[in-house]
Amino acid sequence: EVQLLESGGGLVQPGGSLRLSCAASGFIYSNYAMSWVRQAPGKGLEWVSGVSGSGVSTYYADSVKGRFTISRDNSKNTLFLQMNSLRAEDTAVYYCARSSHSLASPFDYWGQGTLVTVSS
Amino acid sequence: SYVLTQPPSVSVAPGQTAKIFCGGNNIGSQNVHWYQQKPGQAPVLVVYDDNDRPSGIPERFSGSNSGNTATLTISRVEAGDEADYYCQVWASSSDHRVFGGGTKLTVL
């Protein structure tokens, strides 16, 4: 059974940093691309960042480029999102999601999300 | 940047057919995916590549895509279909994944 479990969310002050993790199980992790998708309270889904199965290729939404860094450890089946210079508008539930290698492929499995709150 | 436009809400009576539209420039040339999200839950993929269903998704869910509009059709709507629905594509010009703003389906 495919499982994705996010952790690392919490309350952080504006300008602060936070590192999210997503532990994967139930599939050959390195065969799949992974992404982070967020959802601000009461709002829609927003793709944040993606990484290829090997970890070589990374992609970022314009809203987080230069502040967030996506990475993965295929030896530990874990996805990361390092978030720096956090702003109030980064407040959201952050989901990790799996997709096949093609950039056009859908997100077929999602985690349950971890809440990040940026506030003083 | 590529924009996907969805109506904020759609209402339908039980047993009827619901159509949720997703507009985008020449979206017919893209592979469109649809997600269902119920309150407090993670999204679930219900249709991918315009009109394919993942295993476990009822045949009542179908999709189409042509020109500037993609459509998610839910036949014989049930109370349990009440949820937010999102369309999504890959914008090749930017290598970004893009979501529509979401449509809240209300079952009357």
Helicity of chain B, as a percent range: under 10%
Helix and strand sequence of chain A: EEEEEEEEEEE
Radius of gyration of chain B: 13 Å
User: Given the helix and strand composition of chain A, which structural class is it?
Assistant: mainly beta
In round numbers, the mean pLDDT of chain B is 96
How far apart the termini of chain B lie comes to 36 Å
The 3D shape of chain A can be described as: globular
Radius of gyration of chain A: 13 Å
- Summed up, the helix count of chain A is 0
Largest sheet of chain A: 7 strands, mixed
Order of helices and strands of chain B: EEEEEEEEE
**Uncertain spans of chain B:** none
Task: Quote the beta fraction of chain B.
Answer: over 45%
Query: Which structural class best describes the helix and strand composition of chain B?
Result: mainly beta
Distance between the termini of chain A: 40 Å
Question: What do these coordinates show?
Answer:
The complex is a heterodimer of chains A (120) and B (108). Chain A has 120 residues and is mainly beta. In chain A, 0% of the residues lie in helices and 50% in strands. Chain A contains no helices and 11 strands. In chain A, strands 2, 4, 5, 6, 9, 10 and 11 form a 7-stranded mixed beta sheet that branches. Chain A has a 4-stranded antiparallel beta sheet with strand order 1-3-8-7, with no helix packed on it. The N and C termini of chain A lie far apart (40 Å). By secondary structure, chain B is mainly beta. Chain B has strands spanning 9-12, 18-23, 33-37, 44-47, 61-66, 69-74, 83-91, 96-99, 103-107. In chain B, the strands form 2 sheets. In chain B, strands 1, 3, 4, 7, 8 and 9 form a 6-stranded mixed beta sheet that branches. Chain B has a 3-stranded antiparallel beta sheet with strand order 2-6-5, with no helix packed on it. In chain B, strand 3 and strand 4 (44-47) form a beta hairpin. The interface between A and B is medium-sized, with 21 and 28 residues.
